[in-house]
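[agent] plan:
  1. take the single chain provided in the ticket
  2. run structure prediction with default settings
  3. attach structure tokens to the ticket
  4. add a short note for the reviewer (M.T.)
[agent] executing step 1
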Amino acid sequence: MKPLFQYLIMKNKLIFLILFINTTTFYGQINFEKGYLIDNENRKIECLIKNYDWEKNPNEFEYKLTENEDTKIGNLATVKEFGILGISKFIRVNIKIDRSPTDLSQLSGLRNPIWNQEQLFLKVLVQGKASLYSYMEQNFSRFFYSVNDSLIQQLIYKEYLLENSQIATNVSFRQQLLNDVKCTSKTTSTAKQINCNQKELERYFKKYNECKGDSFLVYNNKKERESFNLRVTPGINYLSFAISNDLYNYRSTDFGNEINFRLGLEAEFILPFNKNKWGIAFEPAYQYFKSQKPIASVVDGDVTVNYNSIELAIGVRHYFFLNKNTKIFLDGFINSIPNVDFNSTIKFVTSSSYITTLEIKSKPNFELGCGIDYKRLNVEIRYYTTQDILSKYSEWASNYQKISFIIGYNLMKSRH
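[agent] step 2 finished; step 3 output follows
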């Protein structure tokens, strides 16, 4: 590898390090939002709460009394309730919860719930005359309710095995709704058919509170968010390529470094949690490498490489927001899908017109990038791990390396 290429790689790693150090600060600054907590003495304290946009119920949270004060930890032992204004609310409860397995391979033969008494933070979904709550862990969800500030109970839904190994379902939650959360014949009809999922339960509890004419709050209303981006991603590649053959050393050739252009089209899906900081991206990108060198031996002739491919990369991107319009990001991709290599060969041509042709077939490799995004534009530096593009030949080894400087333009932003 040439010294300049080594320098660029070291420079790229340094950029990653600087961004990592800086973004820990940015991450802390942008997540603290106005909220409150209620302590064990029933004191309501206004504060700033670090908003992780919790997908799973937390056991603790970070908060500051003021912007410049040190971060404190609130937990189940010290806090009865906390919330971020207009966004989320959690309450501490001592409650019975059914932790029966939900994995089909682990279902029990018991129809009734197996209760555990636990202290938890429940997320308030709907608050009113009838209130709805949720508790979520990895691959685990439970819903709870109360009416007129009554004792909070779990809505019972449980899958279990019959003696013939068929799966049955205990849907007692429907009878609970019929008994306790019934307003009109219409809600009665709905309760008999409702499914035990968040969307349908929220709709049911909102309709009940509307029917009773009572005011209510919905805490999980999702604000309009970015969900999909389509970008054109042109750029410049800085490449290095060499091949070697232990049996015929005279055929080993270093093609040196080359600068050329690349063109890609990236589809990015923004994941609906953690404040839009995570995305899944898929990018097909055209790249090429063309070079000709003399055969390094007493044999007169040339070796020519003509490599054209469409790289198919899929990866994950993480954003760090600086302000409303600006964010920096780190991403990682894998070319796990076979690249489309077309008309790609390495040819050895001697003065006697003897021709040897090697067909180029690339192997998967990884890409690591960092950059900055401003409105519709983004700029990225991306480093590619070494790639073997002569993988079909056991006697040949190749060393294909690349750094890309990419300028992206957002053709389409989808929000919902």
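[agent] step 4 note for reviewer: The two ends are 48 Å apart (CA to CA).
[agent] ticket updated
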